[in-house]
Amino acid sequence: VGAESFYERQRAGKVVRLDDITSIAKTLGARAVSEDMVALAEAHPGKVFAATVRDIDAVNACCLFASHHRLLVEPSTGAGLAAVYGFHPTLMAALGPSPRKHPLVAV
Fold first, then answer.
1. CA-to-CA distance for 17 and 69, rounded, in angstroms?
2. How far apart are CA 5 and CA 58, in angstroms?
3. Phi and psi at residue 106, to the nearest 5°
4. Which mean pLDDT values do the consecutive 10-residue runs of the chain (107 residues) have?
5. pTM (two decimals)
6. What is the C-alpha to C-alpha distance for residues 94 and 21, in angstroms, rounded to an integer?
7. Residue 13 burial (CB count, 10 A)
8. What 3-state DSSP class applies to 68?
């Protein structure tokens, strides 16, 4: 949490400008989401989810990914991977059951 401008926009129903990016995942953050991103998300109702991930969960996901794939990624990528590794069960529940054996995630 600390780079959640899209999450806050979805929650408030309008663009929210963050005072600062406080997450360690600095490259993920934007102080305000663009109107183009809002339009893209709204063009796909039910397919775009806004969620927040704690920094520690992003880092733990980075460590697991490095252990599994021998590839080090930054915490911004770890934020997306946190859902795959089960650190965000609410998001995984919202996505519903996957027809695949393993989830497909693009980060």
1. 36
2. 17
3. -110, 125
4. 80 90 87 89 83 91 95 92 80 67 57
5. 0.77
6. 26
7. 7
8. helix
